[in-house]
Every structure is written in C-alpha cells, then in structure tokens.
C-alpha cells in the first residue's frame, strides 16, 4: 500500500485558502497513492478561539463533499486529518475517512482534548474509537494529544489494526517528544504508524513538520522536513502479520491487572 502524507501549511481565520490548498495537495498526492492523510484541524488551524463557531464546517458538509469527490475520482482512500466542525450546536475535532469509492466509511472525534491549551473549553469530546478497512487492511485513527494515552492505540491494535493514522498539530519546540511517542505506539503495538503534522506558523506557534512513518519495530522509515511537502512511501503490512506471529506480544497481555 502506498501512503502519502500531506504536511500542509494553513492560514489562521482563512478557511477559503485552507480548503483550496487542501484540495490542491490532495489531488497531487492522490494521483499515485492508495491512501492519503491530512493534518489535524486543517480547515481552521489549531484553533481560532475568538470565532471558532463561525469558521467551523457545519455538519462537515463542505469537508465531506471534498473528500467524496477526491476519493471517488482518484480511487484513493482519504484519511481526512481532522476538521473543526459544528454538529448539533456543538464543536468537534473530527476525522472523516473515505474509501476509494468515495464513500464515508468511518469517523472519529478526538477523545482526549488538550486542556493545557483549553481545547476542552471550545470542543466537545468524542466517545468512541474508529476501526476501519482500507483495501482490506484494518486501520485506526487517533488525533495528536491522543498519542499521550497509549491505551487508545492498544485498543485499536488488539482489535486488529495494522496501521495507525495520527493527524497532528504538533509544535516545533516539542517535536522530539512527538517522535518518541509515535515510535513507542508503533513498537508496543507492532503496527505501522503514519503521523501527519502541519508546518508553518499559526499566531505565535511554530509547527514542527517532520511528519513520519514508523514501522512495526518502532523505527522511522520515512520522515519529512520542516516545510510544506508530501511524503510518500510504500508499506507492506505482511510485516505486521509476520512480526505478530513470531513475537506474540498480545498473548502476553495481563489485562486482568489493568482494570
């Protein structure tokens, strides 16, 4: 499976630019990929506290139209990073997943909100995980701060996920921590981990880029730089099956001690 990671610069308070740029990059990446992924809250940036409700995508209708059109036309799966959406009068940080037929097959609203930056004061928490299939391969998605909670990735892995997609808005000053966490999630769950970060500046925050793909041993096998770019790599999930068969980590789990 060839995966393309879209490390995108986004503009504060400019959803028109962000949608246009995302579409341009999606088309470019989708031409030769089985799956593409965008960063977290690419439509608004992370996050416009003063006018979040006016910038949020109502019921994610514009987002869904874009993803359905791109995935159907280019016959590629879209892991939609996440968007700031308004649904039933509430604001969510949500990832939508579309298959290559242009159908929405899953969605995930961020379950661990970044209270350090008051994300929990503006967004509602999601309450479920997301496990789905792309080209017959099971995968899951978590969003940015979720990385700090290993139980979430583990739940997806024991449910059969072989790829973990992680859209982020991770700042440059903590980029080494991001790498440490994603390598840990990949290694402890014996799965590929695909992290898509943003780049550029948003207000006073500089985002770190360095989107990456880690293999089931926790080694970084492809990594972007600091600027906007598309990172593409072919991965073989048979390596996940072989490693899990040989090194039976999940059989050694003591879930009776963890509850």
Give an overview in words:
The chain has 259 residues and is α/β, with parallel strands linked by helices. It is 26% helix and 29% strand. It has one domain (2-254): Carbon-nitrogen hydrolase (Nitrilase/N-carbamoyl-D-aminoacid amidohydrolase, 4-Layer Sandwich). It has 6 helices and 16 strands. The strands form 3 sheets. Strands 1, 2, 3, 4, 5, 6, 7 and 16 form an 8-stranded mixed beta sheet that branches. Strands 8-9-10-11-14-15 form a 6-stranded mixed beta sheet, covered by helices on one side. A two-stranded antiparallel sheet has the order 12-13. The radius of gyration is 17 Å and the shape is globular.
Q: Sketch the topology as an H/E string, one letter per element.
A: EHEHEHEEEEEEHEHEEEEEEH
What is the rounded Rg?
A: 17 Å
Protein structure class: alpha/beta
Percent of residues in beta strands: 25-35%
**What global shape is seen?**
globular
Provide a short characterization of the protein structure:
Helices cover 26% and strands 29% of the residues.
Topology diagram in text:
Layout: E1 2-7, H1 15-30, E2 35-37, H2 52-55, E3 57-58, H3 61-74, E4 77-79, E5 83-87, E6 90-98, E7 104-109, E8 131-134, E9 137-141, H4 150-158, E10 163-167, H5 175-189, E11 192-196, E12 199-202, E13 205-208, E14 212-214, E15 220-223, E16 229-234, H6 238-246
Parallel strand pairs: 1-2, 2-4, 3-5, 9-10, 10-11
Antiparallel strand pairs: 1-16, 4-6, 5-6, 6-7, 8-9, 11-14, 12-13, 14-15
Helix pairs in contact: 1-3
